[in-house]
Fold 6-phosphogluconate dehydrogenase, decarboxylating.
Amino acid sequence: AYSDIGLVGLAVMGENLALNIERQGFSVAVFNRTGEKTTRFLAGRARGKALAAAYSLPELTGLLRRPRKIMLMVKAGRPVDEIIGQLLPHLEAGDILLDCGNSHFEDTRRRNARLAQAGVLFLGVGVSGGEEGALNGPSIMIGGNEEAYRELAGLFNRIAARAAGTPCAFYFGPDGAGHYVKMIHNGIEYADMQLIAESYHLLKAAVGLEAEEMAEVFRTWNEGELESFLIEITAEILARPDEESGRPLVEMIRDQAEQKGTGKWTCQSALELGVPAPTITEAVYARGLSALKAERVEAARAFPGPNPRYAGDKEKFLAALRDALYAAKICSYAQGFALLRAAGQAYGWELDLSRAALVWRSGCIIRAGFLDRIAEAYGKSPGLVNLMLDPFFRERLNRAQAGWRRVVASAKELGIATPALSSSLDYFDGYRTADLPANLIQAQRDYFGAHMFERTDRPGKFHVVWQDEVQGAGNN
Ligand code: 6PG
């Protein structure tokens, strides 16, 4: 009998997704570049299940029911193009190809155009939730050919995580829409992680808490408005002792963060679209700075800063830090959603922002209680220009403001770097300032480059000869 779907790439995510799909009642044919992996999988975790092995791509396509559906779970970048190139001669018009890796949305747009010429229907699918999610229910962000989506909607809905009974699998629009939404998920993931890391740093260096006490703080936070997967695992991480040294394991881990590029792509897109996303960008920079370990060790000797210990009331500081973390988190989501909005317009996707919040409610890394609120905000007003202006978040920001300012001001005084907490506050303050000093920038631009400026009292573009004292003003 033919298999329902093919899957290429048996790294952990691929294996787990194959097992998830099979468990939902679909038969799967699998292929991996190195055949031993396939044999091992079939004899191991896949034993006795409706999984068939293929040892070449023609064999794989031969095992599939028409129209064929093939899921690619290979490393983003060149490998995806290579596999598509090798598969194409064995596909026919109407077959469906799904790229489920963390591909760049521009690559997805390009591949979509190329495959459309061959009549192959292409889907660019963002899958979040790590190994566990792939196996037991990921969050699925789908983009590409809508007919192909309809063909596979049933499968997506079955294998996805659920939030309040609704599958976290949504179609977002043509070509790169799904991968774009996944990219923004990852940008927000970077910001969330950095904000939590800065909070941990303040708890440790400023408040002087031990790991187990910090775990308790995060556990408590996880019971309130900050409730989220990342806060939850942070509490667990802080509570874990190292078996060798007996010390908290987290303290034994080198402080150099790595990255695979999706956060960077989010910042690049922000610059490209002209959408400010400082919290996300600072989170990427912070990983870059952390990687400069040897330089930092050297600089630590060169620049002894102030005493980092906070002298004031600890309980008050903890409450203020919780507010700061929550407010800054709202800012980073506001930036992510502003990007979705701008990209939807720029690429013609008509992205539904409330769906983006819904798709992230379960299964993915940034799953959090407050995504329900975001979904509500965009559900009520799809044209909302910035999440911060939604009545619910407006009230929260107003309430959290004072504590947030105290935390950032203290961090500056104590010499503790808080790039994401601080830049969020600057984003907030800049956004709520009716009169920014950009008038001076315009004047400077006009001074040195005759770049023209607009006036506040009448329409038009104006230029002034700034250096000529005699002729002075008014030359337009
Ligand atoms: C997910 C994650 C995942 C990502 C890792 C690592 O949604 O499951 O976003 O796709 O690859 O989190 O990313 P970095 O190596 O860049 O930290």
User: Anything to note?
Assistant: The CA atoms of residues 444 and 451 lie 9 Å apart. The mean pLDDT is 97. DSSP finds 19 helices and ten strands in the chain. Residues 102, 128-130, 185-186, 189, 258-260, 262-263, 364-365 surround 6-phosphogluconic acid (CB under 6 Å).
